[in-house]
Amino acid sequence: MTFTSDKMRFWSPEVRELEPYVPGEQPKIQNLLKLNTNENPYPPSPKVVAAVQAVLSNNADALRLYPDPDATVLKQAIAHQQNVNIDQVFVGNGSDEVLAHIFKAFFIQKEPVLYADITYSFYPVYSQFFATQTKQIPLNEKFEIDVSDYTQENGGIIITNPNAPTSIALGLDQIERVLKANPDRVVLIDEAYVDFGAESAVALVNQYENLVVCQTTSKSRSLAGLRVGFAIAQSHLITALEAVKNSFNSYPIDRFAIAAAVASFEDQEYFETQCQKVIESREHLVSDLTALGFEVLPSKANFIFATHPQHDAALLAQQLREQGIIVRYFNKPRINQYLRITIGTDEQNQRLVDTLKTQVL
Ligand SMILES: Cc1ncc(COP(=O)(O)O)c(C=O)c1O
Asked: For the domain that residue 108 is a member of, what is the CATH number?
């Protein structure tokens, strides 16, 4: 903390206690290979770039006037691509913001919201921010979510599928067990990485009135810099999210983001080709790392979670960093011998493998 406690007397008491989320670093090192924040190694569709440029050239008022607070054209594009009705779509400034609204709308209950002990580290931050009761449920010894643990009393459930940072996915049959066991609570499936090989629970939305699925354009659509996330659910849940959003920031998606995200959802072919490339590169990287003695958890994401029985993970991360390669290391119980490595292009992955072989192991 950079302020003395004397200056902090101006802060609201609860803000003095906050432990904010720490994003993966975005360092400015030359020839850096950034495999630490699960961004996509490929650019977005060329149609996205053209759509952003067209915003200014087609509309002299584009900057002067507010954007559509409802982002209707974006909701239409998402509804079409996801095969749901427009009143089943909610959009926000990155899925982080969508998650915040989900916490506010559904999870402030007397009973604790349940999520895994090893999962996306923003959930504990929101739990504190919104003063939500929480209970962390340990993953099993294979780092899998055991859905039979999610039948106890709760104020809501979060399942990250595939989970992060473990990369392991659950099947829809498992998700359905959780939905059926908790008919009076909202079950949130955070699908930030679903497009890299897992099954989406959007297919279940019309069957389950307690299901909210959250996705992002940051990973599979190469739009992390744009900040567009969305939720799909039955309309009674979307209405609650809209009430929260319109009590906080009514214009979360700017004109450039709306235009770019619409173009991305309209270019399904590019999207599918890019996802397939990442999946193929992942399988290749997993086999190269396995040949070097790593143990890699079965991944359905655009990253892998790997450990080496003979090498300390913190040291490996440090040695890679000295060679200009950044991977994510979490100094946390149970996972402090693992590295989370984002899938790069084949050339980038080869640089990682060559560096490990010749300079590190
Ligand atoms: C599981 C999970 N959910 C949500 C997010 C947030 O993504 P964004 O805010 O970029 O949409 C991330 C980002 O890394 C994530 O890993």
From this structure: 3.40.640.10
Distance 267 CA to ligand 1 centre (A): 22
In this structure, are residues 32 and 324 in contact, taking their beta carbons and an 8 Å threshold? yes
Cβ contacts of 178 within 8 Å, gap of 6 or more: 147, 150, 157, 159, 187
86 found inside a domain: yes
- Output the six-digit token pair for 11: 């802060």
pLDDT band of residue 326 (cuts 50, 70, 90) is very high
Containing 182, the helix (H) or strand (E) segment is none
Tell me if 160 CB under 6 Å of ligand 1.
yes
Ligand 1 within 6 A of 38 CB? yes
Residue 90 lies in a domain: yes
356 lies in which domain range?
25-44+269-360
- Residue 191 CB less than 6 A away from ligand 1: no
Q: How far apart are CA 175 and CA 155, in angstroms?
A: 17
pLDDT in tens, 24-82: 777 777 789 999 999 999 999 999 999 999 999 988 898 999 999 999 999 999 999 99
Residue 340 sits at the vertex; the CA angle it makes with 337 and 341, to the nearest 5 degrees, is 130
Q: Is 94 in the pocket of ligand 1 (CB under 6 A)?
A: yes
pTM for this entry: 0.96
Q: Is the pLDDT of residue 150 over 80?
A: yes
List the beta bridge partners of residue 355.
none
Q: Which two tokens stand for residue 234?
A: 């039955």
Q: Which atom of ligand 1 lies closest to the CA of 217?
A: 11
